[in-house]
Amino acid sequence: MKRIAIFASGSGTNFQAIVDAVKKGDIQAEVALLVCDRPHAKVIERAIREHVPVFVFNPKQYETKQQFEREILQQLQQKEIDLVVLAGYMRLIGPTLLQAYPNRIVNIHPSLLPAFPGKDAIGQAYRYGVKVTGVTVHYVDEGMDTGPIIAQRALYIDDGEPLESVERRIHEIEHVLYPQVIQQLLTEKGSTKNEKTSNY
Protein backbone atom coordinates (compact mmCIF):
# COMPACT_ATOMS: atom_id res chain seq x y z
CA MET A 1 0.00 0.00 0.00
CA LYS A 2 1.20 3.51 -0.85
CA ARG A 3 2.24 5.76 2.01
CA ILE A 4 1.50 9.49 2.31
CA ALA A 5 3.13 12.17 4.42
CA ILE A 6 1.09 15.31 5.06
CA PHE A 7 2.80 18.63 5.83
CA ALA A 8 0.65 21.17 7.69
CA SER A 9 1.07 24.26 9.85
CA GLY A 10 -2.42 25.15 11.05
CA SER A 11 -5.80 23.78 11.99
CA GLY A 12 -5.59 20.79 9.69
CA THR A 13 -8.97 20.73 7.95
CA ASN A 14 -7.42 19.39 4.72
CA PHE A 15 -5.42 16.90 6.79
CA GLN A 16 -8.71 15.67 8.25
CA ALA A 17 -10.36 15.50 4.85
CA ILE A 18 -7.52 13.33 3.55
CA VAL A 19 -7.61 11.03 6.59
CA ASP A 20 -11.38 10.70 6.26
CA ALA A 21 -11.03 9.85 2.57
CA VAL A 22 -8.54 7.12 3.47
CA LYS A 23 -10.99 5.71 6.03
CA LYS A 24 -13.74 5.60 3.41
CA GLY A 25 -11.49 3.96 0.85
CA ASP A 26 -11.57 6.94 -1.50
CA ILE A 27 -7.80 7.16 -1.11
CA GLN A 28 -6.17 3.76 -1.21
CA ALA A 29 -3.15 4.58 0.91
CA GLU A 30 -1.94 5.03 4.45
CA VAL A 31 -1.35 8.41 6.04
CA ALA A 32 1.98 7.42 7.56
CA LEU A 33 3.29 10.76 8.85
CA LEU A 34 2.35 14.32 9.73
CA VAL A 35 5.14 16.89 9.46
CA CYS A 36 4.40 20.14 11.30
CA ASP A 37 6.55 23.23 11.82
CA ARG A 38 4.43 24.72 14.61
CA PRO A 39 4.55 22.84 17.93
CA HIS A 40 1.14 24.13 19.07
CA ALA A 41 -0.80 23.73 15.80
CA LYS A 42 -4.24 22.16 16.06
CA VAL A 43 -3.39 19.68 13.30
CA ILE A 44 -1.14 17.86 15.77
CA GLU A 45 -4.17 17.12 17.96
CA ARG A 46 -5.99 15.76 14.92
CA ALA A 47 -3.05 13.50 14.05
CA ILE A 48 -2.80 12.12 17.56
CA ARG A 49 -6.54 11.42 17.59
CA GLU A 50 -6.23 9.62 14.24
CA HIS A 51 -3.15 7.66 15.38
CA VAL A 52 -0.96 9.23 12.71
CA PRO A 53 2.75 9.51 13.65
CA VAL A 54 3.90 13.11 14.04
CA PHE A 55 7.22 14.84 13.41
CA VAL A 56 7.14 18.33 14.89
CA PHE A 57 10.01 20.77 14.59
CA ASN A 58 10.71 24.41 15.35
CA PRO A 59 12.54 26.03 12.41
CA LYS A 60 14.03 28.67 14.72
CA GLN A 61 16.15 25.96 16.33
CA TYR A 62 18.02 25.35 13.06
CA GLU A 63 20.59 27.57 11.39
CA THR A 64 19.40 26.78 7.87
CA LYS A 65 16.45 25.31 6.00
CA GLN A 66 18.75 22.60 4.71
CA GLN A 67 19.34 21.39 8.27
CA PHE A 68 15.70 20.86 9.17
CA GLU A 69 14.84 19.51 5.73
CA ARG A 70 17.53 16.86 6.18
CA GLU A 71 15.79 15.75 9.37
CA ILE A 72 12.43 15.74 7.59
CA LEU A 73 13.95 13.68 4.78
CA GLN A 74 15.18 11.11 7.29
CA GLN A 75 11.65 10.82 8.66
CA LEU A 76 10.20 10.42 5.15
CA GLN A 77 12.72 7.75 4.24
CA GLN A 78 12.19 5.84 7.49
CA LYS A 79 8.44 5.79 6.80
CA GLU A 80 9.01 4.82 3.14
CA ILE A 81 6.84 7.69 1.94
CA ASP A 82 5.60 7.59 -1.67
CA LEU A 83 3.88 10.98 -1.88
CA VAL A 84 4.29 14.22 0.06
CA VAL A 85 1.09 16.24 0.40
CA LEU A 86 1.19 19.86 1.53
CA ALA A 87 -2.00 20.88 3.31
CA GLY A 88 -1.64 24.35 4.74
CA TYR A 89 2.13 24.08 5.17
CA MET A 90 3.35 27.67 5.33
CA ARG A 91 6.94 27.16 4.21
CA LEU A 92 8.58 26.96 0.83
CA ILE A 93 10.07 23.56 0.09
CA GLY A 94 13.82 23.59 -0.54
CA PRO A 95 16.16 21.61 -2.79
CA THR A 96 16.83 18.93 -0.15
CA LEU A 97 13.26 17.62 -0.36
CA LEU A 98 12.56 18.55 -3.97
CA GLN A 99 15.53 16.55 -5.24
CA ALA A 100 14.62 13.54 -3.10
CA TYR A 101 10.95 13.55 -4.20
CA PRO A 102 10.80 14.86 -7.79
CA ASN A 103 7.19 15.22 -8.94
CA ARG A 104 6.08 13.60 -5.70
CA ILE A 105 5.34 16.74 -3.67
CA VAL A 106 1.96 18.38 -4.25
CA ASN A 107 0.12 21.36 -2.80
CA ILE A 108 -3.39 22.75 -2.75
CA HIS A 109 -3.97 26.48 -3.10
CA PRO A 110 -7.25 28.40 -2.69
CA SER A 111 -7.20 30.33 -5.97
CA LEU A 112 -7.05 29.68 -9.68
CA LEU A 113 -3.30 29.90 -10.09
CA PRO A 114 -1.36 31.70 -11.41
CA ALA A 115 -3.75 34.33 -10.01
CA PHE A 116 -3.39 35.25 -6.32
CA PRO A 117 -0.43 33.17 -5.14
CA GLY A 118 0.86 33.36 -1.57
CA LYS A 119 -0.91 34.03 1.68
CA ASP A 120 -4.58 35.00 2.05
CA ALA A 121 -5.40 34.04 -1.53
CA ILE A 122 -9.14 33.99 -0.87
CA GLY A 123 -9.01 37.46 0.64
CA GLN A 124 -6.83 38.70 -2.21
CA ALA A 125 -9.31 37.51 -4.81
CA TYR A 126 -12.30 38.79 -2.87
CA ARG A 127 -10.87 42.27 -2.37
CA TYR A 128 -9.85 42.45 -6.02
CA GLY A 129 -13.48 41.88 -6.94
CA VAL A 130 -13.15 38.83 -9.16
CA LYS A 131 -16.34 37.00 -10.07
CA VAL A 132 -14.62 33.64 -10.46
CA THR A 133 -12.03 32.11 -8.16
CA GLY A 134 -11.41 28.53 -7.15
CA VAL A 135 -8.90 25.90 -6.07
CA THR A 136 -5.69 24.61 -7.64
CA VAL A 137 -3.71 21.44 -6.98
CA HIS A 138 -0.17 21.65 -8.29
CA TYR A 139 3.25 20.08 -8.14
CA VAL A 140 5.66 21.89 -5.84
CA ASP A 141 8.82 23.62 -7.01
CA GLU A 142 11.07 26.15 -5.30
CA GLY A 143 8.75 29.08 -6.05
CA MET A 144 5.67 30.41 -4.29
CA ASP A 145 2.77 28.44 -5.80
CA THR A 146 4.53 28.30 -9.18
CA GLY A 147 4.72 24.55 -9.89
CA PRO A 148 2.92 22.79 -12.78
CA ILE A 149 -0.85 22.67 -12.36
CA ILE A 150 -2.46 19.25 -11.93
CA ALA A 151 -6.12 20.18 -11.47
CA GLN A 152 -8.35 23.19 -10.89
CA ARG A 153 -11.94 23.75 -9.94
CA ALA A 154 -13.72 27.07 -10.29
CA LEU A 155 -16.12 28.82 -7.92
CA TYR A 156 -18.40 31.68 -8.91
CA ILE A 157 -18.79 34.46 -6.37
CA ASP A 158 -22.34 35.73 -6.00
CA ASP A 159 -23.03 39.48 -5.98
CA GLY A 160 -22.81 40.72 -2.40
CA GLU A 161 -21.65 37.35 -1.07
CA PRO A 162 -19.71 37.82 2.18
CA LEU A 163 -16.09 36.74 2.41
CA GLU A 164 -16.94 34.13 5.04
CA SER A 165 -19.28 32.39 2.61
CA VAL A 166 -16.64 32.35 -0.12
CA GLU A 167 -14.09 30.90 2.32
CA ARG A 168 -16.51 28.18 3.39
CA ARG A 169 -17.28 27.18 -0.18
CA ILE A 170 -13.60 27.19 -1.16
CA HIS A 171 -12.80 24.84 1.71
CA GLU A 172 -15.66 22.55 0.69
CA ILE A 173 -14.15 22.27 -2.79
CA GLU A 174 -10.69 21.63 -1.35
CA HIS A 175 -11.94 18.78 0.81
CA VAL A 176 -13.41 17.03 -2.24
CA LEU A 177 -10.86 17.85 -4.94
CA TYR A 178 -7.66 17.11 -3.02
CA PRO A 179 -8.52 13.51 -2.12
CA GLN A 180 -9.56 12.86 -5.72
CA VAL A 181 -6.26 14.16 -7.08
CA ILE A 182 -4.21 12.32 -4.46
CA GLN A 183 -5.87 9.03 -5.38
CA GLN A 184 -5.20 9.63 -9.08
CA LEU A 185 -1.54 10.43 -8.43
CA LEU A 186 -1.11 7.31 -6.33
CA THR A 187 -2.52 5.10 -9.06
CA GLU A 188 -0.26 6.56 -11.76
CA LYS A 189 2.96 4.70 -12.41
CA GLY A 190 5.36 5.39 -9.57
CA SER A 191 3.33 8.42 -8.49
CA THR A 192 5.57 10.53 -10.71
CA LYS A 193 3.58 11.10 -13.88
CA ASN A 194 3.68 14.83 -14.58
CA GLU A 195 0.82 15.99 -16.71
CA LYS A 196 -1.65 18.83 -16.54
CA THR A 197 -5.30 17.92 -16.23
CA SER A 198 -8.50 19.60 -15.14
CA ASN A 199 -10.95 16.73 -15.42
CA TYR A 200 -12.31 17.03 -11.90
UniProtKB/TrEMBL annotation:
InterPro entries, per database record: Formyl_transf_N, Formyl_transf_N_sf, GART, GART_AS
EC number assigned by the record: 2.1.2.2
Catalyzed reaction equations: N(1)-(5-phospho-beta-D-ribosyl)glycinamide + (6R)-10-formyltetrahydrofolate = N(2)-formyl-N(1)-(5-phospho-beta-D-ribosyl)glycinamide + (6S)-5,6,7,8-tetrahydrofolate + H(+)
Single Gene Ontology MF annotation: phosphoribosylglycinamide formyltransferase activity
Domain Formyl transferase N-terminal positions: 2-182
Pathway: Purine metabolism; IMP biosynthesis via de novo pathway; N(2)-formyl-N(1)-(5-phospho-D-ribosyl)glycinamide from N(1)-(5-phospho-D-ribosyl)glycinamide (10-formyl THF route): step 1/1
Active site: H109
Transferase keyword on record: yes
List of residues binding (6R)-10-formyltetrahydrofolate: K65, M90, R91, L92, I93, N107
Binding site for N(1)-(5-phospho-beta-D-ribosyl)glycinamide: G12, T13, N14
Cellular component GO terms, alphabetical: cytosol
HAMAP family for this protein: PurN (MF_01930)
Function recorded in the entry: Catalyzes the transfer of a formyl group from 10-formyltetrahydrofolate to 5-phospho-ribosyl-glycinamide (GAR), producing 5-phospho-ribosyl-N-formylglycinamide (FGAR) and tetrahydrofolate.
Protein name: Phosphoribosylglycinamide formyltransferase
Organism: Anoxybacillus flavithermus
